[in-house]
Design brief:
Blueprint: H1 13-28, H2 36-49, H3 54-62, H4 69-81, H5 89-101, H6 105-117, H7 125-137, H8 141-153, H9 161-173, H10 177-189, H11 197-209, H12 213-225, H13 233-245, H14 249-261, H15 269-281, H16 285-297
Length: 304
Amino acid sequence: MSSTLSIQKKTAPLEWLEEVLIVIKKNLAIFSANEYSKVADLVKEYLVRNQKKPKDLFNCLKHKSSKRSIDHILFGFFLQNGIGTIPNFRRAFLEFQKAAKTKDSFGQFFLGCCYNNGIGTPQDQKKAFKLYSKAAKAGDTNAQYNLALCYHTGLGTGKTLKKAFDFYSKAAELGNTNAQYNLAFLYRSGCGTKKNLEKAFELYSKAAELGKTRAQYQLAFFYSNGWGTTKNLEKAFKLYLKAADAGLESAQWDLLLCYQNGWGTTKDLAKALRLCLKAAKAGDTRAKYKVRLCFHSGSGTRRN
């Protein structure tokens, strides 16, 4: 499933900016905090694909005399990520601050992210927690996810797994993929709730279907071991392959084991070796050891 939306019809620049906001919201719910740069990359790709010049849209926002909260948010996002302009974290922070002052929940979310990560302002995780709380109360699913993460890790507040579970649940019910993924982990481990592998499998399935690579990997692991579902090595292989193609290194390791042992696919030692070499080049110590064994035994290659 594509992680971006397509335009149904041509619209005027300022009206069209609202569609860009939908793309941002949709992808924020898929990528984790350390992957947020991918959201900006997808927005840039979306603009190019729909023949929109980032600089023109940036200037539309810059020169608009009367800005709505949505305009402040988008202007801040463009400034923060260098879309149509040179990145300016401080100006981005100020735009998010203006949106948050109007009690816009998405503006509060972005301002919270700035405080959480020290972007354009000194880091203050307690302020981030307060802003996430306000936005979550107003129904913003990305803020609900971040608030759950605060309770889960003790960021800006006391660590409370039960509250983390509650807020992950709220966001997951509204379709937030990140929340579905983390909620699955809580069910899997029995943290903040009773252990339930069937529920974990169900949530990983939803997140995987919406395009979360790590959920695809976890789902493959569940199929491999028969956790919460019937063991199915063929489905596991296909999911490992999908996650590996998306660049997930841990999936590449499991994929090479599938080729090496014929799990869910035809045994192919040459493919296993190629994946092993790729993993070894990326620094995987297990792969480096396995490569030495392959060349020593001639498995998938000539003995050397």
